[in-house]
Design a protein that fits this description.
Layout: E1 8-10, E2 25-30, E3 41-46, E4 49-57, E5 64-66, E6 84-91, E7 94-97, H1 101-131, E8 136-137, E9 142-146, E10 149-154, E11 157-163, E12 166-169, E13 178-179, H2 188-209, H3 212-218, H4 221-231, H5 237-244, H6 250-284, E14 288-290, H7 293-299, E15 311-316, H8 318-330, E16 334-336, E17 350-352, E18 358-362, E19 381-383, E20 391-393, H9 395-408, H10 414-427, H11 432-441, H12 450-454, H13 474-484, H14 489-496, H15 500-511, H16 522-537, H17 543-551
Parallel strand pairs: 8-13, 15-18
Antiparallel strand pairs: 1-2, 2-6, 3-4, 3-6, 4-5, 6-7, 9-10, 10-11, 11-12, 14-15, 16-17, 19-20
């Protein structure tokens, strides 16, 4: 910077509003630091950026500055910082002088008061805009990007500016009927959530592919406690006890031990129920294929109690399934839900019976049934020599189905699916060409490498089977992480002895009310917001869901 008063600096930002705006030209000249007084506006450089702010204090501690619109002052200027005195600014071809000294301080106080009143009015405007059915969304307005600045136009006039995630309105009254666009980038709270989630996913990856105990012990006690407090609602406490039994903090070790043995006891009941149900299938003399957790828990997990299971999903030929369903009804099983129409969904109405897991008889494995004929699935199965009439899906088909369900459900509770993929990869050497072939044959066209791009912390470099060049915005990744780690309070009832309703209610009460009109299910409301964010940010990934919505009533 030179000392000539013909030099100018272009303003880009709103820290000096309403005095200075983006696009204004500020003219300055050199000045000795001893000549500066509170109320002067100066130009200086910090961290490679040129800043135009007002001097609010001088003294032995140095010169302190603050923007008229900033809530807090800047750090004191370093002694070696070169300062220029702002003399005037130019806007729309008209030059205006800048005040100094006491007059400048008085202007600073007026601007601060003006900004506080404007902020109050904006809060009222945003509240009415949120509850009003008559509003425009900023995403639908004409937009123009100027580096960090994005301008929104209404009726060919600039209505609002977004600068580094902060919003500024040409007039507060425009905020009454124009809703702000979704913020770009992550807030500080969301960044902290992402860091915590990354640590958890890295730890889960170490539980499967590496040394989880060493990684866990390297974490700080506060981080260890935070992880343990969160994983119980994710039904991961048995897995944590199984892999980290002697490394867990003392206050969590007993709790997780009880959870592991409670889940093991439930698994014994589940296994006994499986034998009884499989015997009933054999009496019908029909082929069947165990699906999802009922198969993966025994085939790929080191202990079946580590894979939480609620119900039993079994696949049948469409020609046999109704006969099996009637047979179970005759044996005392009751339907949970509507009976007709039988084949509107991919499985028949759920069958329930005391002391047995809920039973879902599938005739198809894909939620969008129009993709392909379900009978094609059977050629990718092999007979189980230990169980008559039982057939097992090949590992590659299991891999693709887990991936499909995770994508289709928008990563809701995707943490379990990621563990399924990881343990499947560790247990079996998968044929990548066959997975690609099935992906094409079943007409899924999934991005097979997207999960590795989203969760690189969980899958080490050598375990990423497929590559993906998908662009994942930080906001979309935060939404995916939040959905994958969605709490599952109903499962905690198995460990605590409480009721699922009580667990769900305690989670709701803990989170408290949100907004003027509180939704009945706060957890679902938060998940829905994350799903809506994915709709905006990852339209190509949501294509399957949208196609299902179009075709589900056919």
């Amino acid at each position: 910077m030179t000392g000539s008063d013909t030099d100018f600096h272009l303003v880009a930002g709103f820290s000096m509003s309403p005095l200075l705006r983006s696009g204004d030209r500020v003219y300055s000249r050199s000045i000795a630091r001893a000549e500066l007084a509170p109320g002067d506006i100066i130009v200086f450089s910090r961290d490679g950026k040129t800043i135009v702010h007002r001097v609010i204090r001088t003294g032995n501690d140095g010169i302190q500055t603050q923007g008229d619109a900033n809530p807090l002052p800047d750090p004191p200027l370093a002694p070696e910082t070169e300062c220029l005195l702002a003399l005037r600014f130019e806007r729309d071809g008209v030059t205006h002088s800048l005040t100094r000294g006491e007059e400048g301080l008085a202007e600073f106080r007026r601007n601060r008061h003006w900004n506080r009143n404007r902020e109050r009015l904006l809060k009222i405007a945003r509240f009415f805009c949120r509850i009003s059915p008559w509003k425009l969304r900023a995403e639908n307005l004409e937009q123009a990007d100027f580096g960090h600045l994005r301008v929104y136009y209404w009726r060919k006039q600039p209505a609002a500016w977004e600068y580094d995630g902060k919003w500024f309105w040409r007039s507060p009254f425009l905020a009454f009927f124009i809703r702000r666009a979704h913020h770009r980038g992550l807030r500080e709270k969301e960044q902290k959530e992402m860091r915590s989630a990354s640590i958890l996913f890295r730890l889960l990856g170490q539980m499967v592919f590496g040394d989880a105990r060493k990684f866990f012990l390297e974490l700080s006690p506060e981080t260890q406690d935070e992880l343990c407090a969160g994983v119980r609602m994710l039904t991961l406490s048995p897995l944590f006890y199984y892999t980290l039994s002697d490394a867990l903090p003392e206050k969590w070790q007993t709790v997780f031990k009880m959870d592991f043995y409670a889940q093991s006891r439930r698994d014994l009941q589940y296994t006994a129920s499986l034998q009884s149900i499989y015997s009933a299938f054999q009496k019908c003399e029909v082929s069947f294929v165990p699906l999802k957790g009922s198969s993966l828990a025994y085939e790929v997990y080191p202990h079946p109690a580590l894979r939480f299971r609620r119900d039993l999903d079994v696949l049948f030929h469409r020609s046999d399934i109704e006969r099996v369903f009637r047979k179970f009804q005759e044996d005392g099983w009751e339907t949970h839900g509507r009976i007709r129409p039988f084949f509107k969904r991919l499985h028949l109405p759920t069958l329930v019976r005391p002391s047995f897991p809920a039973l879902e008889l599938h005739w198809h494995i894909l939620k969008n049934r129009n993709f392909f004929d379900s009978e094609m699935i059977w050629k990718d199965t092999a007979p189980d020599p230990a169980i008559p009439f039982c057939r097992r899906l090949c590992p590659e088909a299991h891999y693709l189905l887990v991936l499909y369900n995770m994508y289709f459900d928008r990563w809701q509770f995707g943490c379990r699916s990621l563990l399924d993929l990881a343990f499947l990869q560790k247990k079996v050497v998968l044929d990548k060409e066959k997975i690609v072939s099935l992906n094409r044959e079943w007409n899924l066209n999934l991005d097979l490498g997207l999960c590795y791009r989203l969760f690189p912390e969980m899958f080490p470099e050598g375990q990423r089977l497929f590559a993906s060049d998908a662009e994942i915005p930080d906001e979309a990744k935060h939404a995916v992480f939040s959905l994958a780690l969605a709490e599952y309070p109903e499962a905690v009832a198995l460990f605590t002895g409480g009721t699922p309703e009580g667990c769900a209610r305690s989670v709701q009460e803990k989170r408290g009310k949100r907004g003027l009109f509180r939704r009945k299910d706060a957890r679902r409301s938060a998940a829905q917001k994350m799903e809506d964010r994915l709709e905006r940010l990852l339209p190509e990934v949501m294509a399957i869901k949208q196609a299902y919505r179009r075709d589900k009533d056919l």
